[in-house]
Amino acid sequence: MKKSLLIALSAVLAGCAETTRPGEDSGGPPVGTLTLSRSEMVFNAGGDVPSDRRTLQVSNTGEGTLNVSGLAVTGEDAARFALPGVSPFSLAAGESRELAVTFTPNSDADLGPQNATLRVTQGGEGGSVQEVYLGGLSVEGQEGTKEPSVQWIFDTYGFPIQTGDEDPTTSALVEEATNAPVGDEVVAQTFRRADPTQPVTVEVLATFAVPNVEPVFEFGFYEAGAAEPSLQKLLSLPIRPGLNGQRLGPVIVPSVPGAEAGVVSFNAPGGTFGFYSSWPTTRFFEQRTVFTEDARNTFDALPHHVRPYPLKERGGAPVENAYILATDESNRLNDYNDAVVLIRNVQPAEAGL
Is residue 124 located within the same domain as residue 150? Predict the structure, then answer.
């Protein structure tokens, strides 16, 4: 009898423990879940563009009401960024709201990279906070020597990559054309897919090229072994919105299905492959194609027109199998900022890399 009572009491206590276990549903009202569409936003302004406006989507992916109680920009350059007309708000389950953030440099004295942090707070005092990195690039103007250096582009994104530029305040990466690697650049003219079960992704970080030719450029890949390779277009860059060819995070037109948030994915060949960009402008030269392989750039006696830099996180840690390709479509300015493209899930095919 006593044994039966003990078993029954143990069962009751176990049931109570189950109902109060951390993380279990305690029977309270459902709560909202704050989800942001991006973790970083980049801007550029100056010259004919006094300010830049980008958008961020705030969504409630939970089952209850989401209360956004705080929106604040912090950091050394916080005064350059603004969220006009925004105050605390609530979202029902499944609802979203678009926030506009603007970057406005003060004057020519502000030239160069500037950064801040957008803090979005859910709930009341002590509520959870999500942060969005804000990078703003103040430029002197558009085209030619008024464009920003590749180093300033990297700095605006917060990438601690050294380009080898001795004077980042000028547009030129190198004063004289050279085939030699500079800064953190590595030798990587052809690539292999790092993880054969995953696609390779392509993202255009910046372009500072001739902005009034449609398209500004096309970008794609090719199998490296062929004498006359078949070029596989992945994306093109339209001239609109205005000055899209002189912009960080420009708008792209994907040529393959499944592109999301400006990132194009593709199944790379099983062997080695390279990347190319095609430039239709005839203002300074006849239409030409620039390859990651120097030997294919026969339009120039010094054919090294694409410089690959291994990607690093903002904290300095290397990012595995990710490279930024900095392209110079001509030999006039040696700036390598005409197309700055991030490639993921690749490894250099060159021996020893």
Answer: no
Residues of the domain holding 306: 144-348
Residue range 199-229, pLDDT digits in tens: 999 999 999 998 888 999 999 999 998 899 9
Task: Give me the DSSP letters along 234-275.
Answer: EEEE-STTTTTTEEES---EESSTT-BTTEEEE---SS-EEE
pLDDT in tens, 295-353: 999 999 999 999 999 999 999 999 999 999 999 998 788 999 999 999 999 999 975 44
Tokens of 241: 């919105």
Q: What one-character-per-residue DSSP string does 37-79 give? A: S-SEEEEEEBTTBS-EEEEEEEEE-SSS-EEEEEEEEESTTGG
Residue 10 is assigned to a structural domain of this protein: no
CATH number at residue 81: 2.60.40.10
Beta carbons within 8 Å of 170's beta carbon, 6+ residues apart: 145, 149
pLDDT tens for residues 227-277?
Answer: 999 999 999 999 999 899 999 999 999 998 878 878 999 999 999 999 999
**Pairwise CA distance, residues 183 & 87, whole Å:** 45
75 and 118 both lie in a single domain:
yes
Whether residue 256 lies inside any domain: the answer is yes
Give me the chain's average pLDDT, please: 89
